[in-house]
Design brief:
The protein is mostly helical and 250 residues long. 81% of the residues lie in helices and 0% in strands. The chain has one domain. It is globular.
């Protein structure tokens, strides 16, 4: 009598298939939840202030990290590999310096300064807190991790660089519809420029999607050329924080 017991593998069963299906299912749920959370962050920031926006942003970083792990993205796919840090800093600081130079040059244009001054400048303390804390933690880091990190990495792995750049940039542009609909001095100034009502709103939203979509392409190209997520993070921060300081100095 043979004492060796044979193991029979059920038909259609593949080792690791259950784990893979579980990971993809959870990733699918998070793929729906993360965009909703991004929208929630903008709504909260527009209605009750930046505190909840920062909290949601930090939670999103955790959720996005889970999506990256569940879908098998590596640090290199996300632009976070340690070997890319030096290049990311070089490219990012260079791009940030160009943005700073552009803002300083714009201060010399009197009509532009006059139009910006009508928006209403914050105090120095509020501007510094916004530039150093609120903008990076409430906007820049989780947006870049979402669009130039996770989404870009998934699209490039599946469909290549061109689709990743155009796809993630298009989503980035469309996502800015929510903040474009919010109240605030910047949106009020844009409404005055293009007019109010349905036509003006459509023009404002179309312009927002176009401009931020093109900005997304630039950020993606910086991500590709540097190989690092640090580069678009620094450029994004320079644009947003520089804008706050520009209004203050105008």
């Amino acid at each position: 009598m043979n004492s060796t017991m044979s193991t029979v593998t059920p038909a259609g069963f593949l080792p690791g298939a259950t784990t893979t299906r579980w990971r993809l299912s959870i990733a699918g749920v998070l793929a729906v939840f993360v965009p909703l959370s991004l929208v929630a962050a903008d709504v909260l920031a527009s209605s009750v202030g930046p505190g909840p926006d920062i909290l949601v942003g930090l939670c999103l970083i955790v959720l996005l990290a889970m999506v990256a792990w569940l879908t098998g993205l590596r640090l290199n796919d996300l632009g976070l590999a340690r070997s890319t840090w030096a290049a990311g800093l070089r490219w990012g600081l260079g791009a940030a310096a160009m943005v700073t130079t552009a803002y300083l040059a714009a201060l010399a244009i009197t009509p532009l300064r006059a139009s910006v001054a009508e928006v209403g400048a914050p105090t120095w303390s509020a501007a510094v807190v916004s530039a150093v804390i609120l903008i990076p933690l409430g906007t820049v880091i989780h947006e870049e991790f979402a669009f130039r990190g996770v989404l870009f990495g998934l699209l490039r792995r599946r469909s290549g660089r061109r689709v990743a750049v155009l796809g993630s940039s298009a989503v980035f542009g469309v996502w800015h519809i929510v903040p474009a609909l919010a109240t605030g001095p910047t949106n009020a100034a844009m409404a005055d420029a293009v007019g109010e009502g349905l036509g003006g709103t459509i023009l404002r939203l179309a312009g927002t999607v176009l401009i931020t979509g093109l900005g997304g392409i630039l950020l993606c190209e910086l991500r590709v050329r540097s190989g690092s997520l640090l580069a678009p993070i620094l450029l994004h921060w320079a644009v947003n924080a520089g804008g706050v300081l520009f209004v203050l100095l105008a």
